[in-house]
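Contributing new records

If you add data, match the layout below exactly. Sequence lines come first and carry their own label; structure lines follow with theirs. Keep one chain per record. Anything else will be rejected by the validation script.
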Amino acid sequence: MPQESQSTEVDLELPVSSLRETGIAHIRNTLRVGQQHMADWHSGSLAVSAVPGAGKSTGMAAAAAIAIARQYQQSAELRRSQRRQLIVVTFTRSAAANIKAKIREYLKDLSLPQTGFVVHTLHGLALNIASRYPELSSLELENATLITPNQSHRFIRTAVEQWISNHPGRYSRLLEGIQFDGEETERLRRQSVLRTEVLPEVATTVIHEAKSSGLSPEDLRQLSKQTTDEYEILSIAAGLYEQYQNLMRTRDFIDYDDMILAALRVLENENARRIEQNQVFAVFEDEAQDSSPLQTQLLTILATDPENPEQPPNFLRVGDPNQAINSTFTPADPIYFRQFCKECDAQQRLVTMDQAGRSTKIIIDAANFVLEWVNSSYQVKSQESRVKSQESPQLSTSPTPFRFQRIRPVEPNYRKEDVNPLAVGRGLELYTPRDIHHTVELLSNRVVELFSQDSREVSAAILVRENRQGRWLAEALTPVCKEHKIVLYDVGERDRHSHVPEEILALLQFCDRPHSPDFLKRALEVLVQRRLIETQDLNALATLPEEFLYPGPLSPPQPEPVQKAGRLCRSLLRARLELPLYQLISFIALTLNYEQAELATADKLAERVIQQIAGNTSMGAMLNTLSEIVSSERFEPVETEDLEKRYTRDGQLTIITMHKAKGLDWDYVFIPFLHENLIPGRFWVPPQSQFLGDYTLSEVARAQIRAALHGQSTLPSVTTAWEQAKHLKTAEEYRLLYVAMTRAKRLLWMSAAKKAPFTWSKPENLQEQTPCPVFPALKRQFPKSTVTLATNPTEDRKKIGT
């Protein structure tokens, strides 16, 4: 891939007014080379491969404003009554809000109206199209309910049971597994594992994978004819997918994939397609490495000029295949954006933004080293596998985890004060603590030292691989942070999908059965968590609900905290008697003193519940619906605050997962617990399902579907598919580490303790753990960054300080 200085420059061909020309030139001169090539886009397809910290969002916003300015001028010259607009598509709602604000600022600088463009998430764009053509999209949004089902959702469970009923022979074959002696206890155990774990996992994995790629159940059945595995995994997957689709249709439910499919059905109609295309002069896509084939198809159609359909679409795509970290749990695959880059490169329409100003030089060097080390290690293993096995040609052709694309510091003539800042301490600090408790000690000492200088002007984050690590760290660090008045923000705890449905369900269950000790205790726990009543012995209150709620004249006097709790509970019971059902959720939200975002989430929840129980408006129906949402869905809260600002506030130590940290940055980044069992991790088969073989059905099915989508002439065998699934996970885990490292500006702190839990569900069980393979390599490559630890903690602090 060419560097920025070698990238193709697109000529500005459209005449613009001299005033606007001056404004465009001014904006262009504030940009770096790679960003300037984005701003020079005129028409056709353009691929932009941008390294972390390259400023792609700024470049895209500037390019969008300049493209809108040219479109205004062109419309004026051609005397068009209707101006076309630019569609900007990005991955998240917060990213959409940020880029919209940046585009408006640039339009303001050009003295243009802050119109001429729309910013959408992909699903928001699809829903917008589908809702305007209900007769073509087959979506009746007034009656449809949007869900995001997981493995335990009622529809998945029902689809599994219906498939088992319709295919007793195949189910019996699964029960037999690789060996079975017919023992009844073992049969019952296997039945439970298949019904509650294996088949629901196959269903959720394959439905999302196939549906997001435009494959129908019948398509999967045709693919299954190319396989020879004993279980006919793809045929099982097709049956589960078909049952799920039937359930969704009969109940008027939709999922996010249905939005994309509905929009594509609209655009299959020539008149509708032409109407939509005539409103658009171009499509700009951010985070293109995370798009699925179906999403790319939708954007390509919209970007095509209806008057010149044979010409390349007016489609500018920005992404970084080295930051593709969603492919193991979504159908997104970096191979598609890599292919787009390759096609554009052949047409000299590829721009490489490899200058990044976010990080200090040693952090850039460390990230580049990880990229090169992982690729070279993978190539060695790939060669070894080719020698050992000639029956897996598909495996040998798997791409390396990273596209070779080194990060470079910003060139001197484009430097600003905040570009490639000076390192703090060593810039890169590598630790090998004794165990996870020693890790906390070292980490907290370093945090206190850094925040003691001027906490109001620094930001810091601890990046963890999974939420369980974050919860354990938050508990361990809370006393230190309180002592030194450091704000600790645990994203996993505060921003879990939503606590609102669970809290409201608890209070409604109490309202429905106030004499149940369990429901009363759970309601009181919510009130304590919300700080509406004081912490007290809730078991004593819940043991005798009637005496607590309605004490008689002979009852002993209640302390004030108990009286306050009783008054609150009785007000809830009165509301149950006096208010209609549809107002109860809103009343409870106000009682719990919810803030703005929580109130909006409660309103969203109430609307969803009332819609779902229409025709059967009863407390029982409401509780059943809420219970299902809490237990088997990801109910997303309404966000009223910029998440990026919330996570990156100055003076705050944020605990956040590596996945959620993508797109953010902090002055100081801490990455503890770098162990091989998590990064890159090991693909393993749960002991309870090993009777099926040394692989999982869901991952084999996913690998076979991807092989078909990638155009492989034959589908891989079970063994090869399992090996491909392993490679996919390993590659993505290393890309995730690369993303985590490149969040740091001035200091990157990394550690791999000698002793750590095998599983973080039991953090107290410590055992010897092997570090992530790249960690020892980093220590060898950067010996001056390796902190030698003494047995005396005081000595440790002295060494770290130097």
